[in-house]
């Protein structure tokens, strides 16, 4: 049993010497020392913790002035933030002050989705939930309850539900996000790129971004390192149908036809191989099946790729040569949100292979070897083993899935097959915006006997709940420790900075109380979270007392690159980098990626694309008063000449109508040359419809609402969402 899920199934690189007592703890952050000195005099208090406005978990220092939360900044000791937070992190204090916060547990009155509630006590809410769970268990087995949980905060609820006996625990970060990438890299190198990604952007001399819109995607370390690389004169190649922030820093900008990336990557590899520009020593030492691979891509010339991609053959050749010139310090970024067109695992595999040709895996300026600290789990009884197994992927229909598939659980909830699912818990995930086709989500919810949502605000999903449990925000609670695989190993503590303003409770308390009501006391041998954290930290040679002061402890540095002694291991079946994949061939898939043209939309329609804005996280920050003020609504990017044809100019409002007749809320047009004419683009997370989100209600449009269609990746069950088309409808 592991109780440190962030380490399971990923390579755990043992750092020599990071046994008890060997971890290095810096005395104190410089900023903290100053603050400690001033405490009392000016009524200032500083508390190190880590951010939760997104899943990057940057180390931070919060300042309380005269008993009130004042500001939050980066913790200079933290290797993720290096002392600087992104704009969302800085605005994170707004989460505490948000007037749209849930204040007390709520139970549904009237039909599901009507958003009529009665306030109840925690004891009433948890007693009701526990008795419903026992009833479902008695009728259908414990597997009949599923948990959707996104992020570190869900650790203890996962623990309670595993102890209850369900194996059906999932997050949208696999099948709706990075799943295809992780599977594609795993099939090729035998390892994943992880989160935070093991990309050595800082040292890259050539950085290739295929849709990875760093600068809008604000994952802190990546953006800071991107800025460093640009400052150091790295050659940047950006491939995106939209002129992104990253594109504005690029030496080469390739405005590709949406969905044609695999054709471009195959053509790049064709150039590297036919011109003999790839890293022959590296491929010879570490590669498997190179000859068969080379034969497969022989026909994928730049001339072949041109009509598919819209990128001139001369540009394809020139950019391939640019990559070769800087290898192995050429990093083709693996991306993160990879669920685009349905061939995503194969596209990700092609990205992995391109990196392999450039010799960048395990090399400086490519992909480093990450390490993590050993922080032993708190000893606990083993979880019961389910006789039925997981519900999401019957018969391993998606043979290469390596995590539980959210949409597989949704499907089982609708069909009752392979067995019925009657209860859902959702922790820190808004499935109405995260999963494609909200109609299917609603259909599944209608089949449930119990839907419990744990959130800080009343999301769209909370609107459909039977019981809503209000959580304390990250600034008001302890959480599980953050131990990650990264370039520098570390352990970080989240601790309360201020008290929760109303009757909100932290997840560890909620999960523990629920376990008590379910008779699962044996799984909570610790009396409270402080005892739990201290025991884990003590076992690692640290203590809660020290971490409360510093927020973070660093492990010993480990070699990052093959040339420095990092072990060149490839845990694939052949123990090599699989240019040709016998695993894929045996399962009936292309052993070398093949391009298939994505389906086009009907005449006069535009492909709907979406992405991030620097000041918002998904659909979770629109009611945060600080971040709301910076960007209250989204816009739809429409190509300037297309807009002209429709008589539209920037600031006009339109509605988007998709291929299935779904019509969006009115949204402002941004008429711009910075996007191709065959697509439109908007920032994800707006167009809220939950009445509980008063500040954000009906502002902007929701991409999720328009994503009624999706293509399922046959290898691993990911749901590709860039397959919807819209027309522009005048706003009356
Ligand atoms: N159409 C469309 N769908 C997408 C995407 C897209 O761009 N477009 N992106 C995909 C990607 S990349 C991902 S990773 C997923 C993300 O999908 P989700 O993980 O579902 O992300 P959010 O939609 O932000 O939902 C997070 C929920 O957590 C709540 N929350 C915030 N803080 C806390 C807290 O401290 N405690 C608790 N209990 N709850 C909290 C928020 O209020 C919000 O309701 O969505 C995927 N789905
Ligand atoms: N500010 C902020 N930052 C975030 C998040 C957030 O919510 N807010 N969420 C985080 C999470 S969980 C994730 S997964 C990442 C997601 O961020 P990324 O992985 O960087 O990007 P995507 O969301 O996949 O893609 C969006 C970009 O791809 C382009 N694009 C669309 N279609 C195509 C295509 O066919 N080909 C190519 N080449 N490009 C295309 C779009 O124009 C856009 O620029 O962001 C992370 N960072
Ligand atoms: S990237 Fe920004 S929002 Fe995410 S954890 Fe770091 S500071 Fe917070
Ligand atoms: Mo994501």
Features:
seven-stranded mixed beta sheet; 23 helices; 732 residues; binds ligand MGD; binds iron/sulfur cluster; single chain; 27 strands; six-stranded mixed barrel; 29% helix; binds molybdenum atom; alpha/beta
Describe the structure.
By secondary structure, the protein is of the alpha/beta class. The chain contains 23 helices and 27 strands. It has a 7-stranded mixed beta sheet, covered by helices on one side. It has a 6-stranded mixed β-barrel with strand order 20-24-21-23-22-27. A hairpin with an 8-residue loop joins strand 4 (106-108) and strand 5. Helix 8 (261-274) runs antiparallel to helix 11 (302-309). The chain is globular, with a radius of gyration of 25 Å. The termini are far apart. Mean pLDDT is 94; it is low at 1-38. Bound molecules: ligand MGD (2 copies), iron/sulfur cluster (SF4) and molybdenum atom. One ligand MGD is lined by residues 54, 88, 177, 210-213, 217-219, 239-242, 244, 256, 258-259, 261, 335-337, 340, 609, 611-614, 616-618, 681, 722.
Measured as a percent range, the helix fraction is 25-40%
Structural class: alpha/beta
Give the percentage of residues in beta strands: 15-25%
- Given as residue ranges, the uncertain stretches (5+ residues, pLDDT < 50) are 1-38
Number of helices: 23
The tally of strands reads 27
Which of globular, elongated, flat, extended, rod-shaped describes the shape? globular
Q: Characterize the largest beta sheet: strand count, sense, and whether it forms a barrel.
A: 7 strands, mixed
> How far apart lie the N and C ends?
59 Å
Oligomer: single chain
Quick check: average pLDDT? Answer: 94
The value of Rg in angstroms is: 25 Å
Q: State the strand order across the main sheet.
A: 5-4-15-14-13-6-7
């Amino acid at each position: 049993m592991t109780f440190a899920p962030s380490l399971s199934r990923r390579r755990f690189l043992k750092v020599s010497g990071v046994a008890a007592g060997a971890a290095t703890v810096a005395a104190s952050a410089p900023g903290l020392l100053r603050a400690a000195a001033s405490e009392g005099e000016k009524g200032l208090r500083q508390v190190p913790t880590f951010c939760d406005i997104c899943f990057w978990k940057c180390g931070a220092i919060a300042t309380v002035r005269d008993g009130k939360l004042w500001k939050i900044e980066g913790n200079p000791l933290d290797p993720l933030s290096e002392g600087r937070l992104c704009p969302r992190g800085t605005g994170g204090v707004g989460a505490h002050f948000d007037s749209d916060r849930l204040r007390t547990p709520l139970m549904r009155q009237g039909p599901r989705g009507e958003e009529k509630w009665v306030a109840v006590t925690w004891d009433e809410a948890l007693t009701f939930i526990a008795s419903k769970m026992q009833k479902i268990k008695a009728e259908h087995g414990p597997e009949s309850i599923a948990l959707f949980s996104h992020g570190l905060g869900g650790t203890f609820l996962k623990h309670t539900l595993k102890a209850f006996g369900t194996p059906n625990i999932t997050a949208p970060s696999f099948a709706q996000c990075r799943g295809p990438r992780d599977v594609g890299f795993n099939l090729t190198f035998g390892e994943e790129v992880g989160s935070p990604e093991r990309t050595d952007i800082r040292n890259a001399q050539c950085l290739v971004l295929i849709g990875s819109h760093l600068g809008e995607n604000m994952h802190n370390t990546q953006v800071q390192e991107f800025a460093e690389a640009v400052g150091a004169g790295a050659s940047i190649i950006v491939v995106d149908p939209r002129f992104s922030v990253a594109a504005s820093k690029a030496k080469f900008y390739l405005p590709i036809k949406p969905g044609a990336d695999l054709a471009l990557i195959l053509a790049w590899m064709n150039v590297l191989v036919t011109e003999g520009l790839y890293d022959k020593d590296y491929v010879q030492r570490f590669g498997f099946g190179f000859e068969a691979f080379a034969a497969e891509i022989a026909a994928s010339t730049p001339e072949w790729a041109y009509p598919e991609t819209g990128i001139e053959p001369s540009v394809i050749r020139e950019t391939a040569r640019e990559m070769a010139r800087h290898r192995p310090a050429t990093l083709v970024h693996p991306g993160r949100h990879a669920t685009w067109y349905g061939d995503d695992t194969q596209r990700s595999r092609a990205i992995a292979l391109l990196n392999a040709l450039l010799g960048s895996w395990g090399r400086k300026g490519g992909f480093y070897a990450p390490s993590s600290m050993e922080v032993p789990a708190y000893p606990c009884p083993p979880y019961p083993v389910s006789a039925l197994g997981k519900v999401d992927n019957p018969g391993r229909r998606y043979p290469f899935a390596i995590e539980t598939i959210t949409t597989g659980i949704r499907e089982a909830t609708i069909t009752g097959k392979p067995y019925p699912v009657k209860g859902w818990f959702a922790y820190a995930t808004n499935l109405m915006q995260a999963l494609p086709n909200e109609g299917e989500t609603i259909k599944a919810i209608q089949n449930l006997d119990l839907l419990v949502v744990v959130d800080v605000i009343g999301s769209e999903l909370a609107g459909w709940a039977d019981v809503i449990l209000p959580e304390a925000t990250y600034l008001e609670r302890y959480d599980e420790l953050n131990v990650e695989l990264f370039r520098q190993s570390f352990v970080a503590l989240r601790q309360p900075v201020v008290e929760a303003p109303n009757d909100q409770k932290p997840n560890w308390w909620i999960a523990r109380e629920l376990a008590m009501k379910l008779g699962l006391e044996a799984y909570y041998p610790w009396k409270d979270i402080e005892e739990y954290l201290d025991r884990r930290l003590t076992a690692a040679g640290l203590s809660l007392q020290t971490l409360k002061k510093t927020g973070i402890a660093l492990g010993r540095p480990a070699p990052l690159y093959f040339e420095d002694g990092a072990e060149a291991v490839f845990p694939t079946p052949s123990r090599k980098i699989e240019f040709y994949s016998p695993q894929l061939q045996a399962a009936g898939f292309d052993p070398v990626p093949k391009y298939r043209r994505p389906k086009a939309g009907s005449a006069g329609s535009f492909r709907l694309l979406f992405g991030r804005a620097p000041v918002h996280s998904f659909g979770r920050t629109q009611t945060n008063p600080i971040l709301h003020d910076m960007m209250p609504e989204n816009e739809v990017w429409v190509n300037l000449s297309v807009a002209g044809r429709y008589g539209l100019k920037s600031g006009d409002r339109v509605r988007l109508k998709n291929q299935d007749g779904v019509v969006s809320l009115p949204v402002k047009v941004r008429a711009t040359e910075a996007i191709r004419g065959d697509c439109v683009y908007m920032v994800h997370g707006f167009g809220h419809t939950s009445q509980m989100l008063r500040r954000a209600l009906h502002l902007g449009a929701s991409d999720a609402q328009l994503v009624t269609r999706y293509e399922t990746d046959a290898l691993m069950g990911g749901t590709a969402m860039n397959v919807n088309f819209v027309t522009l409808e005048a706003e009356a």
